[in-house]
Every structure is written in structure tokens, then in C-alpha cells.
């Protein structure tokens, strides 16, 4: 195997990790470069196992496309989706180093402005929420808020009007024909109903000389009318609609009758619960059908008015300080505070394309880059495809590392449905990061745990002596602490990660005196679960109790955990090692 720029590549591989992804321009290999320079159009899937440089390729491709198609992409921007906030911090220095800052970086959980997914949930629940059937469920839930009430009387002052079902149906049909989202279409519905009610009103009072606008306003202000029209076409918010479906089982049953009762029961939770990542695509689907709500628009208008008032007040202060009482003509005589404030705002800092896109849920991008794309559910794909009508995307992932229950094990299984075969695959086949002995052990362990989905074999660029060490422990915490002390001493300025099952994190956090919360990438030692380690790399990795990782999640979680190191993997176990380890061992167990 020939490596382009072998000296630079090997120097980069041997260098200590810093907690941030470094500039790797000098180490780009031929198969990576071909992918980076691939055409902008269509969906390019970059499939590659651990250590093949998928993320580096994705970032360099983003920079290359921004340079090569600047006129197109600088107007619409590029969206980069990463698997976690930790991952985004890890790569945040790379694009600026490549000369590009016009990229919006986000996780799926932060995709919608003003909403952040902070809660976790059972894998089974995430799987249920990821199903494509939710598109129909949410559409029916929105439609259910457009109701036809029975005949009833509506008092408008001393006049009694009739709410007539046929007029409601006609007004609703007219609103739907507008093609607008629910809240905007509601304006058409209300206008049509007020016109019908005004006709009744004028017929009753014989008001040939009445001002029609005043009549309509009187009807609009009547409590009975407001209540009836709201019940017939309720103004909605996306978050309110989704929260109601989870909090009120009968509401969900009414629009998701084909969903098994056990699945509906698993979704029940109280109103006010924190959002999970799997909720975000559902909220996005609802927002697309509902549109903006009146309260949000009013709040934005209030914020804009307050900002404008502050600018005018500042302008008055500036004008008051210019000139003196002896000046025959002062700045205040030449320009008003309002005009000065407007000119100041126009000449002040302007939002970049990326900043405007980040604030606008409905923004459509010229290109989207998705890392760890194998984790996306069908509903997540819908949310991202909605943001890129041109279907120009770079999709990076490894189906052997799929740990999400709503993710995919085969690209064709997911993408043929979502993209109708309008996609292509480029494969990365060389592992530049992980020592060969570690890769052999990881592949053997995961294949034994999931024989139907063995990871694809990779060429290895590196044979590292003593790269795999196994240590049996009587006390997991004490042994991990002793092993960690040795690894930190050996790694010098490098980094060490302890990766274990989520259920074991608190125990090890206390034993090792390492925070189990948000990861500090500047720290030399970090404690992670496999999901948190996804996309990252470290000089040395201690995998604590691999059997617990397998028991808690998917076989892919163990694969991810074992393939993070560039120098050494140290496996510590008190329980029996999972099947597959024995076949890969090329060195004896430690007797620590």
C-alpha cells in the first residue's frame, strides 16, 4: 500500500492528540482527495470504517465546495450536522484553519432555533419516534384541529348570529386551497367566516348605511365568535402539538390508531417534559405544517421595536453631544434621531449568511454535510432533506458503527426510500489511525456479538507493538485507577479516555475523580460512554468492562469504544470477556 506524503502522514499519526482535531491537509491520501473533489450535485455517501479519515474528508470537502462554488454557496450556506456538541467542539478549529467560516454547525438536537434537546430516553422509545409513519400522524393531528362544530348561536351585542356548519366547511376548504401552513391558512378561514357572519348581521339589522369594516371588527371582538372560530380552526404551536400527543393518550390514539397500543403507552409523558433528540424531527415536521404562530411573531415584533427604541435613544445622545449652543447649525438641525439611528443600523455589523441561517428554521442550504449519518432515523432524514431541496449533500458514516435503534445498517435500505436512488457511494478502505491488532480485536468481538453485520475488513496503515492489553480485575474501579495512572505516565502530553457503559460512569467517576458530565476536551483524561466517544480519537483508551457495554447497548457501541485509540487499547474487565476476544489475542493477559 503506497501512502502519499508518507512522512507527513506518519508524523501526524504519531503526534499526541490535543483534544481538538488538527489540520490534516498535508496528510490527505489519494482515495480521500478524490472524494473531496467529487461533484457538488447529488447525495454523496462516504462509507468508511474507524480511522479512515471520514470526518477529515467531510470537512475538507466542505471547504473545497465553498471555494469552488462560492457564488452559489455563499448565498445559501452549508449546514454541518455532527453527532454531539462535544464532537462539534472537537472539530471547530478545522474549517477556520482551511479558510472557511461560512458554515452552520449543529447537532440534530439543536436543529430548531430556540429549542435544545437535553433529555434522554429509552432506545425503544427513540426507535418508535424515528419511524416515517409520524409524518402522517402529525399531519392528521394538525388536521384534527380544523373542526366543524354543530349549529350554535353567537351573540354579538344585541344581535344573535348562527354558526352554520356548511359555512364553516366552505371557509375551511377555501383556507386549505390557499396551500399555506395551518396558522397562515387560518387567516383565510377567519376572514371567510367573518364575511359570512357580517352578511347575517347586516341582514338582521337592515344596516344599509353601516360601515362594513366596523361591522366586521365588532363581530371579530365578540367573545362567542372568538371562541367558536378558535374551536373550528385552533391556532397552534409545533411544540404544543407534539407535547399534547405525548401527554394525552386519547389524542395520540385518535391520529395513530394503527400504532400498537404498547408503543403508544411507551410514549406517554407529562406536559413540560424536556425534549429529546428524537423529538426534534417530530417538532420540525409539525412546524412545517403549522407555520409560525401569532405569539412568536408578536414577540419578534416586540423585540424589534425595543431594539429600534434603544437605537433611537442612543442616536439622540450622540446628536446631543455634537456641537454647542453657540453653533448656528448643529447636527440635530440636519438629521433627526430616527434617521441617524437608521443610518447607523445600516452601516453597522451585518449578519453573515451562516448567522441568518442559524436563526431561521425554514432556511434552505446549498449543501449539507452529515457526520455519523448512519444514526439518523427516517424522521431525521426528512428534517434534513427539507433543508436542502437541491439534494446536494455529503453523507459520512459507517453502518458497522450504528448504535441508534432508529438508525440504519444498510445505506440502500434507508436512502432508496428517502432519495429514490439519487445517491452514490464512495468508500474509504484504509485505517490510518487505529493499530492493526486493535482493529482485529474490535472486528472479532463485534462479529461474534452480531454475526449478521460484521464490520467490513480494512487495510491497516500501522502495526504498533503492544497496542492491545487485557487486564483481569477483582475490583473494576481500583484496577482501572491503577491502569489509568500507568497510561497517563506513559503517554506524556497525550490524551487518555476511559470508556465504559453509561451505567458504570458514576462509579468510575467517583473512583477516578473525573467528571462524568460535559466533557472538557482540554483535559488530558476524560470519562465517556460509547455514544459520547463517537467521532473522537485519543492517544490511549481504557475500555472498562466491555461485557457491560454490550449488555447496555448495541454491538456497535463496543466497536466504537475499542477503535478510538491511536497508540494503545487497554481493556479492563471483572466479568468474562465477550466472545470473539480470544480469537483476536496476540499477546497474553496482564496479571495486574
Compute the number of helices. Answer: 29
Sheet with the most strands: spatial strand order: 3-2-6-7-1-8
Mean pLDDT: 85
Helical content band: 40-55%
Please tell me what the overall shape is: elongated
Radius of gyration: 30 Å
Estimate the strand proportion: 5-15%
Helix-and-strand structural type: alpha/beta
The biggest beta sheet reads: 6 strands, parallel
Oligomer: single chain
Number of strands: 15
- Give the terminus-to-terminus CA distance: 38 Å
Question: What's the helix and strand layout?
Answer:
Blueprint: H1 6-14, H2 30-36, E1 43-48, H3 54-68, H4 70-76, E2 78-82, H5 85-91, H6 94-97, E3 103-107, H7 123-129, H8 134-143, E4 152-156, E5 159-163, H9 165-177, H10 182-205, H11 212-221, H12 223-232, H13 238-247, H14 249-255, H15 261-267, H16 279-290, H17 294-321, H18 331-334, H19 337-347, H20 353-359, E6 367-370, H21 378-386, E7 393-397, H22 411-419, E8 423-428, E9 430-431, H23 436-449, E10 459-460, E11 468-472, H24 476-491, E12 496-500, H25 505-512, E13 525-528, H26 530-533, E14 538-544, H27 546-552, H28 555-562, E15 565-573, H29 581-584
Parallel strand pairs: 1-7, 1-8, 2-3, 2-6, 6-7, 9-10, 11-15, 12-13, 12-14, 14-15
Antiparallel strand pairs: 4-5
In short:
With 592 residues, the chain is α/β, with parallel strands linked by helices. 49% of the residues lie in helices and 13% in strands.
Describe the structure.
With 592 residues, the chain is an alpha/beta fold. The chain is built from 29 helices and 15 strands. The strands form four sheets. A six-stranded parallel beta sheet has the order 3-2-6-7-1-8, sandwiched between helices. Helix 23 (436-449) links the parallel strand 9 (430-431) and strand 10.
Amino acid at each position: 500500500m503506497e501512502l502519499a506524503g508518507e512522512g507527513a502522514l506518519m508524523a501526524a499519526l504519531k503526534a499526541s492528540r490535543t483534544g481538538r482535531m488538527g489540520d490534516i491537509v498535508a496528510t490527505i491520501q489519494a482515495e480521500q482527495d478524490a472524494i473531496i473533489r467529487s461533484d457538488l450535485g447529488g447525495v454523496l455517501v462516504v462509507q468508511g470504517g474507524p480511522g479512515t479519515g471520514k470526518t477529515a474528508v467531510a470537512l475538507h470537502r466542505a471547504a473545497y465546495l465553498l471555494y469552488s462554488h462560492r457564488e452559489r454557496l455563499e448565498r445559501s450556506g452549508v449546514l454541518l450536522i455532527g453527532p454531539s456538541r462535544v464532537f462539534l467542539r472537537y472539530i471547530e478549529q478545522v474549517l477556520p484553519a482551511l479558510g472557511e467560516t461560512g458554515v452552520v454547525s449543529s447537532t440534530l438536537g439543536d436543529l430548531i432555533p430556540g429549542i435544545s434537546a437535553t433529555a434522554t430516553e429509552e432506545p425503544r422509545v427513540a426507535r418508535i419516534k424515528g419511524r416515517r409513519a409520524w409524518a402522517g400522524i402529525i399531519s392528521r393531528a394538525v388536521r384534527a384541529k380544523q373542526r366543524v362544530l354543530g349549529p350554535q348561536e353567537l351573540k354579538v351585542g344585541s344581535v344573535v348570529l348562527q354558526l352554520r356548519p356548511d359555512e364553516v366547511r366552505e371557509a375551511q376548504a377555501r383556507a386549505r386551497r390557499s396551500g399555506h401552513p395551518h396558522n397562515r391558512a387560518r387567516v383565510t378561514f377567519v376572514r371567510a367566516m367573518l364575511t359570512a357572519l357580517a352578511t347575517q348581521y347586516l341582514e338582521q339589522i337592515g344596516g344599509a348605511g353601516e360601515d362594513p369594516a366596523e361591522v366586521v371588527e365588532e363581530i371579530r371582538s365578540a367573545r362567542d365568535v372568538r371562541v367558536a372560530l378558535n374551536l373550528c380552526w385552533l391556532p397552534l404551536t409545533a411544540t404544543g402539538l407534539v407535547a399534547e400527543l405525548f401527554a394525552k393518550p386519547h389524542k395520540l390514539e385518535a391520529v395513530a390508531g394503527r400504532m400498537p397500543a404498547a408503543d403508544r403507552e411507551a410514549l406517554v409523558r407529562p406536559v413540560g417534559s424536556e425534549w429529546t433528540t428524537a423529538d426534534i424531527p417530530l417538532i420540525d415536521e409539525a412546524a412545517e405544517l403549522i407555520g409560525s404562530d401569532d405569539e412568536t411573531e408578536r414577540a419578534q415584533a416586540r423585540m424589534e421595536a425595543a431594539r429600534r427604541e434603544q437605537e433611537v435613544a442612543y442616536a439622540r445622545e450622540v446628536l446631543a453631544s455634537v456641537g454647542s449652543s453657540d453653533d448656528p447649525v448643529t447636527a440635530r438641525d440636519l438629521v433627526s434621531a430616527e434617521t441617524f439611528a437608521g443610518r447607523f443600523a445600516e452601516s453597522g455589523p451585518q449578519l453573515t449568511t451562516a448567522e441568518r441561517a442559524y436563526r431561521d428554521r425554514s432556511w434552505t442550504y446549498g449543501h449539507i454535510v452529515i457526520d455519523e449519518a448512519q444514526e439518523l432515523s427516517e424522521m431525521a432524514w426528512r428534517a434534513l432533506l427539507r433543508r436542502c431541496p437541491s439534494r446536494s449533500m455529503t453523507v459520512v458514516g459507517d453502518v458497522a458503527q450504528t448504535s441508534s435503534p432508529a438508525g440504519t445498517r444498510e445505506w440502500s435500505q434507508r436512502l432508496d426510500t428517502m432519495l429514490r436512488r439519487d445517491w452514490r457511494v464512495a468508500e474509504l478502505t484504509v485505517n490510518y489511525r487505529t493499530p492493526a491488532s486493535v482493529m482485529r480485536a474490535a472486528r472479532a468481538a463485534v462479529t461474534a456479538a452480531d454475526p449478521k453485520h460484521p464490520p467490513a475488513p480494512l487495510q491497516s496503515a500501522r502495526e504498533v507493538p503492544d497496542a492491545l492489553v487485557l487486564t483481569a480485575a477483582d475490583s473494576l474501579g481500583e484496577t482501572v485507577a491503577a491502569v489509568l495512572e500507568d497510561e497517563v505516565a506513559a503517554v506524556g502530553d497525550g490524551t487518555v479516555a476511559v470508556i465504559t457503559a453509561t451505567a458504570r460512569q458514576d462509579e468510575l467517576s467517583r473512583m477516578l475523580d473525573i467528571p462524568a458530565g460535559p466533557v472538557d476536551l482540554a483535559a488530558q483524561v476524560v470519562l465517556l460512554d460509547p455514544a459520547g466517544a463517537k467521532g473522537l480519537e485519543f492517544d490511549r483508551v481504557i475500555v472498562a468492562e466491555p461485557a457491560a457495554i454490550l449488555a447496555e447497548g448495541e454491538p456497535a457501541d463496543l466497536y466504537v469504544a475499542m477503535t478510538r485509540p491511536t497508540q494503545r487499547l487497554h481493556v479492563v474487565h471483572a466479568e468474562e470477556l465477550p466472545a470473539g476476544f480470544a480469537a483476536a489475542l496476540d499477546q497474553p493477559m496482564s496479571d495486574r
